[in-house]
Amino acid sequence: MAPHVLILSGTVAAAASAVYPKTILSSGQVDVTVYLPGKLGYYNSTRFDWGSMIGEITLGEAEFFSDLWRTATDPNWGKDHDPSNPEGVLGLASEFGCGSDGPDCPAGWGRQAEASNGVLGYHEAGMGDPFLKIGVGKLIKGSCDACKTDTNYHFNSRYDFAEPPVWTVSHPSSDTIDMIHEASLGVWGYRFQRHLQVHGDMLVMRSELTNTGSKAFKTVQYTHNFLAFNRQQIGPPLKLQSGQDLSSYSEPGNEQ
Ligand SMILES: *[C@@H]1O[C@H](CO)[C@@H](O)[C@H](O)[C@H]1NC(C)=O
Questions:
Q1: Cα of 196 from ligand 1 centre, angstroms
Q2: Does 120 reside within a domain?
Q3: pLDDT for 235-245, tens place per residue?
Q4: Which interval of the chain is the signal sequence (predicted)?
Q5: Distance, CA of 155 to CA of 112 (rounded, Å)
């Protein structure tokens, strides 16, 4: 899986988030708040990988926050935060899957549904049986609210866990953190490692997914970029410019 290199994508913690376990990565130039994955974490729901909740990022006088992107369309966003809300996220909010319903999805625009929508063992599971959601853990098929009327996989509906997911966090130095999560079910298994490191004015994020099962799988993954700047949403008078030339970039499957 290709590493993501992010230059200062910023986020914010809602007012109540101070109670959730977190740590701060510091390079001396940039400080990044990372919410730690776990049962009592900022996010413990069933859509996004738990190791992708980044809080505020500060660089000198500048603050990059994430809750503001949403308040324009949802003024109540961030109040009464519920960690078990599938959509109750911060920062990079990374999901294995393509953000739509169904157990399979296309790996790129205009393609056939040839990859997994971040789930393993979904097709063969009966209602009430476990399946894996990568980055989340072992869930129960048919347990979500939206599942009451059909057997489809619903990516943003809350599922019951078949067992609590285990995350191992190591924070060997003030600039680095590793968050590791593994799960297995019969022929299916994965090990996921999220590595975050700050150096200079950069936050580098590496996501590594290993197949620990005996059956091959293909999945897609994406990450949000909930950016705001000094408590303002991006929009006039602010202008966002990419440091890279993206004029010839095409999404996979959408090449010209
Ligand atoms: C999620 O967090 C809430 C509030 O801290 C807690 O009551 C609940 O048991 C947690 N759920 C899981 C699946 O860990």
A1: 25
A2: yes
A3: 888 888 888 88
A4: 1-18
A5: 19
Q: Assess if residue 238 is contained within a domain.
A: no
**DSSP β-ladder status, 54-59 and 202-211:** unpaired
Task: Specify the DSSP class assigned to residue 161.
Answer: B
Question: CA 211, CA 216: separation in Å to the nearest integer?
Answer: 7
Distance CA 52, CA 37 (A): 8
Per DSSP, 2 falls in state P
Token pair for 143: 């347990």
3 state DSSP class of 19 = helix
Question: pLDDT of 81-124, one tens digit each?
Answer: 899 999 988 888 999 999 999 999 987 777 787 899 999 999 99
| Structural domain boundaries, residue 17 | 4-233
Nearest Cα neighbor of 29 from 230, 175, 241 is: 175
| Ligand 1 centroid to residue 202 C-alpha, Å | 32
Which neighbouring-strand residues pair with 229?
64, 232
Q: Whose CA is nearest to atom 7 of ligand 1?
A: 40
Residues 6 or more apart in contact with residue 194 via CB below 8 angstroms: 49, 51, 52, 178, 179, 180, 205, 206, 207, 208
Write down the pTM of the prediction: 0.86
SS (H, E, C) 99-121: CCCCCEECCCCCCCCCEECCEEC
Total domains in the fold of the chain: 1
- Per this entry, what is the length of the chain? 256
Question: Cα of 110 to ligand 1 centre, how many Å?
Answer: 38
